[in-house]
Design brief:
With 208 residues, the chain is an alpha+beta fold. Helices cover 50% and strands 8% of the residues. The chain has a four-stranded mixed β-sheet with strand order 2-1-3-4, with helices on one face. The structure holds glutathione (GSH).
Length: 208
């Protein structure tokens, strides 16, 4: 199998995919995209991701964009590493559920909160209200130590990364189960390796 090519810029959401890549043992070839220099709006990159955003991945002629989708894709492409439950495993439902919950509910809630956006109608806001999201996160973390109980999966990388960002930016308070979960996830060697790589490339690109 050809190596996936991962289009990466440090200090962005692409760090989530870099973390995933490190968990898998560095399975991707890295292509640096310098947001400061506008590489992401070049005609060549826009063919890969018309959004002009990182991260992106190209593998076997297929373009994959969206951080969570890329993490899920890599977990399946390297299924021998055990980051995704098998297709016939009932855990697959919870795996998909929380993998999609991160970008479709937690992130919009977080961005609305940080941007001071008030949704008048929780019924039509995909995430409902902040307290609904916090209650759901509490349910998600009730089995522990991972989303799937004893089994670590790519959903934890996506969720661990997002909750870590949410705490860093002040969108979610660091306390209780969320604090324990984020501390546990960010103590992983692959997280430290990602941070090291991100810092190295950030210094190289002058985006500290
Ligand atoms: N939903 C996308 C969001 C990607 C995204 O917004 N990336 C930002 C960096 S964190 C970006 O590339 N921004 C450049 C731009 O929009 O010009 C994902 O999760 O991958």
């Amino acid at each position: 199998m050809a190596k996936p090519v991962f289009y990466y810029c440090p200090r962005t959401r692409a760090d989530t995919v870099m973390w995933m890549n490190e968990e898998l043992g560095g399975v991707c070839d890295i292509k640096l995209i310098n947001l400061k220099a506008g590489d992401h709006k070049s005609p060549d990159f826009l063919k890969i991701n018309p959004m002009g955003k990182v991260p992106a991945l190209v593998h076997d002629g297929v373009n994959v964009t969206e951080s969570a989708a890329i993490c899920a894709y890599l977990a399946d492409a390297f299924s021998d590493k055990g980051f995704a439950p098998a297709l016939n495993d009932p855990q697959r439902g919870a795996y998909y559920r929380w993998m999609f919950y991160a970008p479709s509910c937690i992130e919009p809630m977080m961005l609305d909160k940080l941007g001071g956006v008030k949704r008048e109608n929780a019924m039509s806001a995909g995430y409902g209200a902040e307290e609904d999201v916090l209650k759901s996160i509490d349910v998600m973390l009730s089995a522990g130590p991972y989303i799937l109980g004893d089994t670590l999966s790519a959903a934890d990388i996506v969720m661990g990364s997002l909750l870590n960002f949410a705490i860093m930016f002040g969108a979610i308070e660091k306390k209780g189960k969320i604090a324990d979960y984020v501390d546990h996830m960010t103590a992983r060697p692959a997280f430290a390796k990602m941070q090291e790589i991100s810092a190295k490339y950030a210094a190289e690109l002058g985006v500290e």
